[in-house]
Design brief:
With 286 residues, the protein is of the alpha+beta class. It is built from 13 helices and nine strands. The strands form two sheets. Strands 4, 5, 6, 7, 8 and 9 form a six-stranded mixed sheet that branches. The protein has a three-stranded antiparallel sheet with strand order 1-3-2.
Length: 286
C-alpha cells in the first residue's frame, strides 16, 4: 500500500523518510520512507489489523533502508543493474519539523524514486531512476514552488546527470556534491541548477586566479558594480543589446554608449562574444 492510499484512509498519519522507534505510534514501512499513525487515533481492532497485515514487513525494510546512503557515502556495494540514475541534492533554507513530510511529498512527484533521505538537518538527497518521463529544471522548480505553498519550506536544488551503475557514478557524485556545496548558497531560494549552470566558473576559476595576465587585466580594468552588472546581463542575454537594455531598465542607446565608452577605456569590445566571455570569466573568478 502506498502513502497516498494510507493518507486517504488515515488523514492524521504522517510520512517520514527515516525510521524512529516509538511506543506511541504504529510505523508502516513504505517503498521509500515510513508512515506514522498515532495509536490514540486508532481502535484496538485497527491496531491489530495494521500490525498483522502491514507492519510485519518492517524488519526486512529496515535492513535495506537507505541503501543509496551507504553507496554514496560509505562505499556500499553497487547494485548489479543496467539502469541509470541521477542524484538530486537539496539545501533547505532552514531546519523545520515537517521537513520529512516535505521530502516524502517531493519524492512522490517523480515517476521513479528509488531512495530519498536527509544527510543532515537541511541537506537531502533523492535518487531517481531514469524512465521515459524526463523532469526538466523548470518542472522541478514548479514542484518545489507548489510544495512551498503547502509546507512553507524553501530549498535550492542541484540536479545531477543520469549515470550508469559503475564506480564512475560515485566519482561523478563526489564532484557533484562538491559543486553543490560550493554553489547552493549562491542561488536564490527555490532555484534549481545543474552542472552546466556553474561549469564555466567551476572549471576555469583556479586557472584564471593563477594567471598573471588575467590578474593584471582585472587590476587595470575598472570593474565597478555597474560594469559588472552590465557584463553579467549581456552574458545572460547572449550579447543581445536590446534584451539586455530591457533587463537593465535602460534605453538601448544608453547601453550602446556605455559599451563604446568601456571599449575606448580598455580596448575590449563587449559587443564581441570572445571579449565578453573573457570579461565574464574575470568577474566570476577574481
Amino acid at each position: 500500500m502506498n502513502s497516498q492510499s494510507l493518507q486517504a484512509l488515515f488523514p492524521n498519519g504522517t510520512v517520514e523518510s527515516v525510521y524512529r522507534d516509538t511506543k506511541t505510534h504504529l510505523v508502516i514501512p513504505l517503498d521509500s520512507g515510513y508512515f506514522y499513525l498515532n495509536k490514540n487515533d486508532l481502535s484496538p481492532r485497527e491496531i491489530t489489523l495494521i500490525t498483522e497485515l502491514l507492519i510485519n514487513r518492517q524488519p526486512e525494510k529496515l535492513e535495506n533502508h537507505h541503501v543509496w546512503y551507504n553507496i554514496l557515502f560509505n562505499h556500499g556495494e553497487l547494485p548489479n543493474t543496467p539502469k541509470h540514475y541521477r542524484i538530486i541534492q537539496m539545501n533547505l533554507r532552514k531546519n523545520t519539523r515537517n521537513k520529512d513530510s516535505w521530502l516524502a511529498h517531493f519524492s512522490s512527484l517523480f515517476d521513479c524514486v528509488v531512495d530519498y533521505f536527509f544527510v543532515d538537518g537541511t541537506t537531502a538527497i533523492i535518487v531517481e531512476e531514469q524512465t521515459s518521463i524526463f523532469y526538466s529544471k523548470e518542472d522541478i522548480k514548479s514542484m518545489i514552488l507548489t510544495l512551498e505553498a503547502e509546507f512553507l519550506i524553501q530549498a535550492t536544488v542541484f540536479v545531477g546527470k543520469y549515470q550508469a551503475i559503475s564506480h564512475d557514478l560515485i566519482d561523478c557524485f563526489n564532484e557533484e556534491n562538491t559543486i553543490f556545496k560550493l554553489y547552493s548558497t549562491s542561488f536564490h531560494a527555490n532555484d534549481v541548477f545543474e552542472f552546466q549552470d556553474v561549469a564555466l566558473e567551476y572549471l576555469t576559476k583556479k586557472a584564471i586566479q593563477d594567471s598573471p595576465l588575467m590578474t593584471n587585466l582585472y587590476n587595470t580594468t575598472n570593474f565597478d558594480e555597474e560594469t559588472i552588472l552590465m557584463i553579467k546581463t549581456l552574458w545572460q542575454e547572449q550579447g543581445n543589446i536590446t534584451s539586455s537594455a530591457k533587463k537593465l531598465y535602460t534605453h538601448r542607446n544608453t547601453l550602446q554608449y556605455k559599451l563604446d565608452k568601456f571599449s575606448e577605456q580598455t580596448g575590449i569590445s563587449l559587443k564581441n562574444m570572445t571579449d565578453l566571455t573573457l570579461c565574464y570569466l574575470l568577474i566570476l573568478s577574481l
